[in-house]
Fold:
Amino acid sequence: MKSKKIIIALLTGRGNNTLKDKNILPVLGKPLLHYPATAAKRSRYIDDFFVSSDDDKILDAAAEVGYRKIKRPDEYARPDSLHIDAILHALAEMKAASLHPDILVVLLANSVTVKTDWIDGCIDEILNDDNISSVVPVNLIQDYHPYRAKKLNADGFLEPYFDFSKEKVSTNRQDLPHNYFLCHNFWVLNVGRSLFSENGQPPWTFMGDRIKPYVVDETFDVHDRNDLELSERWLRENPD
Structure:
């Protein structure tokens, strides 16, 4: 039987973006962040809901969906700020409110490609195996396999990133090892084994070193107005 763990959702989004107010721009008549926020609200596991942002408009929009506000300091809301700093700040605010999540569901406010079943499926993995540090949605994409990638050498010519002198690499993508890209829609963190691990995998060291993939279909996040149109298409094709 699964032991009861405290599971909290943290919606994250900053106001300083190239596309002004992108996290609250209308998508099918609702703010963009409404969709990841409500997907998490429908989870059968999550106990409480918070939103971290420097922007009062984002905080207010999330509060309308039932999220408790955490005002993010400006130093954690710059274009070059790291996600880990915003997450740790939010955890400190939760701790001050006597909340100590065992599992943290980090939601990104600029992606509608979130399904409740995906969230609960990722949580299930950790509930069934506490040695997992995190479970993250991934896309299986062979076209952009790292074995196919090249870098420039000192002479300005392309060369592989890896030393293939002792092995033969197929030009057929289906023959290559499976290649997973992390999605930027949400991540489920086993707090004690991820955020406070000393051996986290770069660049997202806060995910720890025992990261389970949760393979999903198409995902994307919003960076420009074309992405808003893609978001509306995806929502129509993936109704609740």
In short: The first strand starts at residue 7 and ends at 12.
